[in-house]
Structures
1.
Amino acid sequence: DSGVTQTPKHLITATGQRVTLRCSPRSGDLSVYWYQQSLDQGLQFLIQYYNGEERAKGNILERFSAQQFPDLHSELNLSSLELGDSALYFCASSRPGLGSDTQYFGPGTRLTVL
Amino acid sequence: GQQVMQIPQYQHVQEGEDFTTYCNSSTTLSNIQWYKQRPGGHPVFLIQLVKSGEVKKQKRLTFQFGEAKKNSSLHITATQTTDVGTYFCAGRETSGSRLTFGEGTQLTVNP
């Protein structure tokens, strides 16, 4: 158990819909990262937040957005869903500092778009 | 931007054989990390290498960081079925920049 929680575990929805994925980082971790992993693919970095502010952006589509709240939990919003958005979405957290930037991954949310 | 390439993409071995995955960065790295993802699971941190030429061991796993800090390798001696999974390297270009993950090497071990 990494200490990072993600809800829901599974999500099945239809094309054109909007969903929200939630992540709670490890206690004390200020950074949250979102990754997308399609079937048998690598980890595609989407976005990073640090203490409530956007820190880095990867290959995140305009239909996707995220935010980190004052209590440090984060939400990833996916809208106008397409079949190709079906994937595992991982959240990871870290506590940036000298030699302490290990990322701890949550169990992931499996999104299926029908 | 920074690219981290990993080879091979897939590796099938017989139990007891050795296994090596290689990671190459397009830029010099400040550090490199390795993660393992079991089938159906999430990536789990294995180790971090920081110094040029650094070698670290964890039981049957040996991790190396190249002298130029642009490449790294993970070697598993005498693989076991518990080693099955995908191994990712992740490089950090400078202190404070984000990690860039390689595509991963998916290891299958036949008993």
2.
Amino acid sequence: GQSLEQPSEVTAVEGAIVQINCTYQTSGFYGLSWYQQHDGGAPTFLSYNALDGLEETGRFSSFLSRSDSYGYLLLQELQMKDSASYFCASDLTDSWGKFQFGAGTQVVVTP
Amino acid sequence: GAVVSQHPSWVICKSGTSVKIECRSLDFQATTMFWYRQFPKQSLMLMATSNEGSKATYEQGVEKDKFLINHASLTLSTLTVTSAHPEDSSFYICSASQGQLYGYTFGSGTRLTVV
């Protein structure tokens, strides 16, 4: 089976940098994805790491280390609209598709 | 970008009735779609994999006779919650993908309340 661990909540001020860590235990691993979900809304895709290293997309970056079974999502120049839940998710099969999600990290951005 | 439409966005039904939820990929074809359920303040839990033209694959603990999935075309999958009970009240979300580099696009979700 697979499990993904991430912190339950992080609070930071506008303009700050937040790092959300995700550690995983898997019987097989094919990649780590990150999704953002605002209250009452559907998850939206942020990034996907299949290989070790850093992927940068605007203010958000994601990192993966397969040897450490660890990844993180980095949110820079925080804005109020970044207040949301962030989920890491791991592929469950080698045919890109079904995910297991972490419990989610609630990011609260304060003025 | 890829758009996945889900309908209805919310529904209230009486206990014992059935509810059908539709998931459509609007600008791409999806041979596979996934159905998730999310209870308040919890994570998304995969319920089943919907395969176009064949039977759905259900995750352990999900009753296939209660949650009927039909994937009759490359752009439409439906989830029918049969004989709904209050404990089935949840947020149901579908997802589909154009391919690995695009990630998975989620539908807007359906909030089901069974009274």
